[in-house]
Amino acid sequence: MVLDAIRNVALARLGRLLFSALLVGAALLVAISLVFGTEALMALGLPRDVAGPIITLVVVAACIYGLYWFATRMIDW
User: Fold this and answer.
1) Along the 77 residues of the chain, how does pLDDT read in single tens digits?
2) Which residues are CB-contacts of 30 (< 8 A; sequence separation ≥ 6)?
3) Following DSSP, what letter does each residue of 24-62 receive, concatenated?
4) Angle at 75 between CA 70 and CA 77, to 5 degrees
């Protein structure tokens, strides 16, 4: 009985840790995409004030699609 309670608490903490790592990973992915995407477009000859908004729109669209995919595939409605 006590061991089951300890196991449940440990699993809950592990779940929170994994969820936090996933959120940090997603935030880093967005930040890296913004930085390197802007630099890639600048390497193609676009000025920074044009490349920044283009990459921002692309990253926002990818995030919205990711939320859509999560809602339709991962969540069991």
Assistant:
1) 777 888 888 888 888 888 899 889 989 999 999 999 999 999 999 999 999 999 999 999 999 998 898 888 877 66
2) 59, 63
3) HHHHHHHHHHHHHHHHHHHHTT--HHHHHHHHHHHHHHH
4) 130
The pTM (predicted TM-score) of the whole model is 0.68
Q: Is 62:54 a contact under the CB 8 Å cutoff?
A: no
Query: What would the two tokens of residue 38 be?
Result: 């802007």
* Residues sharing a CB contact under 8 Å with residue 51, sequence separation 6 or more, in sequence order: 37, 38, 41, 42
Taking the C-alpha atoms of residue 75 and residue 56, their distance in angstroms, rounded to an integer, is 27
Confirm if 26 and 19 have CB atoms less than 8 A apart: no
Amino acid at 47: P
